[in-house]
Amino acid sequence: MQQHPHTSGRRTRRLAALTAAVAAVVGLTTLGGPGAQAAGNPYERGPAPTESSIEALRGPYAVSDLSVSSLAVTGFGGGTIYYPTSTADGTFGAIAISPGFTAYQSSIAWLGPRLASQGFVVFTIDTNTTLDQPASRGDQLLAALDYLTQRSAVRGRIDSSRLGVMGHSMGGGGTLEAAKDRPSLQAAIPLTPWNLDKTWPEVRTPTLLFGADGDTVAPVSSHAEPLYTGLPSSLDRAYIELNGATHFTPNSSNTTIAKYSVSWLKRFIDNDTRYEQFLCPLPRPSLTVEESRGNCPHTS
């Protein structure tokens, strides 16, 4: 039986189209193109990072902010929420940040837009009183996260399963307290932390600690270093000691703190392995880094 030439041509074209489609899918899968990576990690946000992008004063997202009165919340003292303006990329992870002893949210305000512009909802908080101790600050960080995810005007922008905490000084000590009390937290970053408790075997949250070589308020030998060594050795953990720095270095814009904090938060809150290149190997001693310790992030 003779085949009609038009039928044969259509079959050939269909077969060629099918072959091309299969090849495209296989190519994406094997080459790990952006489509494949996005499908593999639904939490990935923003373009591929570079050294300059993690050091930048602002990331790829435009940021809005809103003030939260202490009268409108319970368990902490209110604060300011910074968040990506666009909802095109879906929900974001969220971070609460506590100031230190005698300090207000203004002392850590620079971190709000800096981190939010990289694709996070960030809540810089005031504490109930400026004299609150680390355990109380830990409770207040968790109360702030609960407000963010359950009652705040931006709760619809947040993935409540991807949360982290940061804090300065006693707020840094409170960061560890929060991680101990809520193991589901995805990341913790204490900044020149102060806490009398040095042992943290309960912590399951990946933790990055910053110390300062010139810290006379919470010297690294009695705070940041033992707090780091007090974490489980099996934990994803790192310690970076800032060079030429003081206890109050985290209170103003700092590129070293920002670049490694962004990388840590991206890696552990967003599960974004594109940022591992900035965490492993650890930063070498330099004009800004006195020393570093830690392990390479465990691949999940």
TrEMBL record:
Family: Belongs to the AB hydrolase superfamily.
Name listed for the protein in its UniProt record: Alpha/beta hydrolase family protein
Species assigned in the record: Streptomyces heliomycini
Pfam families tied to this protein: PETase
Entries under InterPro entries matching the protein: AB_hydrolase_fold (IPR029058), FrsA_esterase (IPR050261), PET_hydrolase/cutinase-like (IPR041127)
Keywords carried by this UniProt record: Hydrolase, Signal
One example GO MF annotation: hydrolase activity
Signal peptide limits: 1-38
Keyword Hydrolase: yes
Ranges where the PET hydrolase/cutinase-like domain occurs: 38-297
